[in-house]
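Summary for the funding panel

The consortium committed to producing paired sequence-structure records for every protein in the target list. Below we show the first two records in order, beginning with the earlier of the two.
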Amino acid sequence: MQHWPWYLLIDESFVALDGIRGDLVARGMDVREKILRWTGLPCCIGMAPTKTLAKLANHVAKTAERKSGVYPAHYAQVCNFAALSAAQLQDVFERTEVGEVWGIGPRIARQLQAAQVSTVVQLLRMDLATIRRRWSVVLERTVRELHGMPCVGLDDAPAAKQTIACTRSFGQPVRAWQDLQEAVSTFTSRAAEKLRQQHSVAGQVLVFARSSRFRAGAFYSESVVLPLPQATADTATLVRTALQGLRGIYREGVDFAKAGVMLLDVQDAGVRQLSLGLSEQASTRQNRVGAVMDQLNQRFGRGTLSLGSAGVALGVGQPSPQAGLRPWAMKQERRTPRYTSRMDELLQVRV
């Protein structure tokens, strides 16, 4: 194995170490000490040429600190597989159960143990073709990573979501159609905003509403999925479709406790086919309107600009207790104060 190490794992965060030189264990100890001093959170660090090995090194660092005798004590807190000899590395693999490997769940671990493979060193001795044929290419990739061959790269940005949802439990039962319409319109608008943030469009809209199982009366729960003629991220179109579905599942006399919207069939906005009824010019105009709404709401506060079907809330766009007067607003009496984002919630210290 050359170019050690390639990855560093601090608990659940991977960091590339390309070009870093010097005493890596000392650097790791310094990083760990700063995290503890600045945040008060203890952590352990593992270093290795692949993400799977870095995860395993992190496990060794934590276990050596917490359980004496499982691994040598000097592996505690910061474990660098690059600093270990081949014999030391094999000793670690012999001490480690196969179920501790990142990517091997309990079911696969039991299957491997039934095949007389209980430790990492035994897993490394298996034939890769056999692993792929009997289990899967995913397990083969994991074993290759344990051999030091990178198969899982760093994700520079999170993958686009395949479904986008916005659901809420109401602070009090909602029975009136107007209130339920406002709630679903608001939820759909929020989901549309998320959709535009990742530059996607949706092809279907799911809307649901239900009562509470814990209140008196018969429980009611219903949902419906409506396909869109054309995949879009336009708030007005998505809200109109969601309300169309809501009308079909709404029942008078039901005390609704929760409602929500899911945008399905999410795809990249740059790869879509326009129908004859929707020109490229109309699509561009819709995108421009959505972008303006997002900019205004980001600048002046969420809810500053919304569709009429979402109603008009007192105090929208600014911190105000009146904004929570809507019947369907969530209860937030126990919410942690927003010291860093709300002027009226700044921490006050009396001297």
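The next record, for a separate protein in the list, is shown here:
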Amino acid sequence: MLRAGTISRLGRIRTLGTDLHAPLGQNRGPGRQRRLPPFGRILGGFCLIAIAGFSLYSALLRDDLKKTQPIETAKKEEPAPAVEEKPAATGLTQVDPQSGANTTRIVTGDGSVVTMFSPNNRDGNGPVLINANQIGQDPRMAATPNDSLLEDSPFGKLPITGPSGLRPMDQYARPWSGARGTRVAIVVSGLGLSQTGTQRAIEKLPEEITLAFAASGNSLQRWMQDARRGGHEILIQVPFEPFDYPGNNPGPDTLLTSLSATKNIDNLHKAMGEITNYTGVMNYLGGRFLSNTSAMEPVLRDIGKRGLLFLDDGSSAQSKSGMLAKTLEVPHAFADVQLDGELQQDAVMKKLDELERIARRNGSAIGVASAFDESVDAISKWSEEAAMRGIEIVAVSALADDPKHP
């Protein structure tokens, strides 16, 4: 029989066992439950929505930044826009030293340079530059003709004075020091008549020696280019009528006193069209023609008009070329010594010594020779020693009497 106290303890145990199987927090009194009021629940919902929206906006913003970043980087790496025309090349007026003509150069949008020439009367606006470039051609382009100094003709491309007043005798002249010491010019003529002789002369003669090509020669364009690349100034040699013509015939298309001026000019142009890049014309023979002023005048006039010089080889004492050239204001030179009248190397050396004496007395002198082996050998040897004696060997254009540059 159980005691009353024992029954009471068992009742409490059953009650605890029942509570252990009940979920946590249940079977509590109503006073212990806590619930948010309706307003709080609404406010909390709004907070959750705001947090979710801000998180979505941040994610989208990061994606946008990632997408736009390469574009911005590409923009930074783009090359800078092309620089506009430089002031020095746009609307700049230059005065050509030979003619005084105005030359305006403008750079177009595609980078091309447009050159415009106008008379030398100016309104005084804008800068003016005096072009003081040294006369002569860039050695790298010496064998290439200046197209602005050529015109087409039935006889080929003929030399002319350029639109700016630039003359072929200036463009193709061999530059020299400008010093007023003792100067000597030596012209070796007849190149093109013998292939081996021409090659030997071009290879062996110093570049200061002027070379004259016979218009009736062969492979003249090739030899002209070799000579120009070698630094030589060149002339074209034209056949003129000698006193004993036709017994002594200089060759086809000889200029004759019996021909009309028109026919002689045509023959002159045939010779001129054989090559380019020469500074002037030299006679081949021609004692009779050179002494006839009526025949010579139109020929010299055409030579001067084309911006060329005329070299008289000095073979005729009756030549009127010097007097006519001064009257017509044509650049002109006259040879002082025939170097190889006697074709022996020692004899040529003596003539070269005579040429030196004339140069020391007068300040300058011109000697002419043919492209014979003896002449070439003597001139080569003498030229090597000339500088040691204070002599400057110059091209023939440097000693020409030029009315435009007195």
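Regarding this second record: Residues 213 and 272 are 11 Å apart (CA to CA). The radius of gyration is 48 Å.
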